[in-house]
Amino acid sequence: SLIGNSAPMRSLRDAIARVAPIPGSVLIVAESGTGKELVARELHRLGPGERAPLVAVNSAALPEQLVESELFGHERGAFTGADRLRRGAFENAGNGTLFLDEVGELPLPAQAKLLRVLEERKVMRVGGDRAIAITARVVAATNRDLEHEVEAGRFRQDLYYRLNVHMLRVPPLRERLSDIPVLVDHLLRTIASHLRVRPKTIAPEAVELLAAYDWRKNNVRELRNCLE
């Protein structure tokens, strides 16, 4: 899943292999479009593996009023529209991995509740009166500078330290331009399959042009869009 054999990618794979068996929280720091979820999936594959679930939550896409329900679940009748019991992401992750993408986008009230869950290893469903033990490993990711967010008062310092037990930095594409040829080959096959067309070839001079660009806007996602 992690394409490329450049020095930064070899270092990243080595770091993932070291951290994967350890049950502590992991913070993945990377620019947008670099493949944070791929790193989370590799951590899960080398850790709990297929015998346990991987639940991914995009924190930036959660409506503020539904954050607690999505993460912690709710009891039937907890609020208008809650017509049945719903397990949250922590419960659904079981003994596996809960991947919180764009964790820096969580509103401060939700950050406080997430911190309490990480400290107590228990969740309380919205409208519930019983604490439920959770065992899932939390892997969080962000494209923000969380230390700067802490200084600005937009992210809780105690939550930052709770998440940042192990940190993995995903290199931007401009730091591993030598991976462009193999990435292009992989992406062309993936795109052709997705669009249901025959695989395309690319001229060597076109690959050279792609490898000379810095892809600062959106990294691998920008490269994929360009090829598509």
Structural class: alpha/beta
- What is the assembly state of the chains in this entry? single chain
Number of separate helices = 10
Strand order in the sheet with the most strands: 2-5-8-1-9
Count every beta strand, where a strand is a DSSP E run of 2 or more residues: 9
Query: Share of helix among residues?
Result: 40-55%
* Average pLDDT level: 93
Features:
228 residues, alpha/beta, 10 helices, 41% helix, elongated
Q: How would you describe what is shown here?
A:
The protein contains 10 helices and 9 strands. The protein starts with 6 loop residues before the first helix and ends with a helix. The chain is 41% helix and 15% strand. The strands form 3 sheets. The chain has a 5-stranded parallel beta sheet with strand order 2-5-8-1-9. A hairpin with a 6-residue loop joins strand 6 and strand 7. By secondary structure, it is α/β, with parallel strands linked by helices.
